[in-house]
């Protein structure tokens, strides 16, 4: 009677490798570095329409995406497209553009009923109707990229911070928070920072933002620095980094002599 053939041993599944954080060398070769979306399902259709013109990346990021922000922070002359589709959250559009323009030049693709003047005043380099012909959109986006490249040769949009610590937090969200708070020319209101780091539907609450800053301070403590924050009138303003001063117990006051 023939002997049964032994069953082959299953091969072990390889462990997934952690995804590296994007750097300037890893950035896309398209004129646009990042596409941020308030409704990704509609942005996906726009990207498919624009694919033959090679001006937008193949994928979009949701508002608040840490990898998207890190990619922009690695490029002082970056260009981001904020796609605002019909029915999207436009109630805070000007505020979103204002905080996003701190780290990148911003082109807004928006419905025609959006207040273009207010969006431009908020910091957008251009506001384009998203229902324009794809060929026209591509040409205008390329023109914006050409203007940014010309301007960056004459003046850097952002100089590197001299006081930025060399700490590398474990989480991408903490790394983005460190980069934002290290910008030398920007002071952040807690509401603006919470909006930038939140999702399209909900900003980060003030309490959650304070908890993130506390965790970041724990990572920065070995380097002798901490986040500088000013609390006043119910708001917190983050003004950058400062040397961490150890807490000292005040000496006991001597009793008053009557």
Give a written overview of the molecule:
The chain has 258 residues and is of the alpha/beta class. The protein is built from 8 helices and 8 strands; from the N terminus they run βαβαβαβαβααβααββ. The chain has helices at residues 40-50, 66-73, 93-100, 116-121, 134-154, 172-181, 190-197, 206-220; strands at 34-37, 61-62, 79-83, 105-110, 126-129, 188-189, 225-232, 235-243. A 5-stranded parallel beta sheet has the order 2-1-3-4-5, sandwiched between helices. It has a 3-stranded antiparallel beta sheet with strand order 6-8-7. Helix 2 crosses helix 6 and helix 3 (93-100) packs across helix 7 (190-197). Mean pLDDT is 81; it is low at 13-27, 156-162 and 247-258.
Write the layout of secondary structure elements.
Layout: E1 34-37, H1 40-50, E2 61-62, H2 66-73, E3 79-83, H3 93-100, E4 105-110, H4 116-121, E5 126-129, H5 134-154, H6 172-181, E6 188-189, H7 190-197, H8 206-220, E7 225-232, E8 235-243
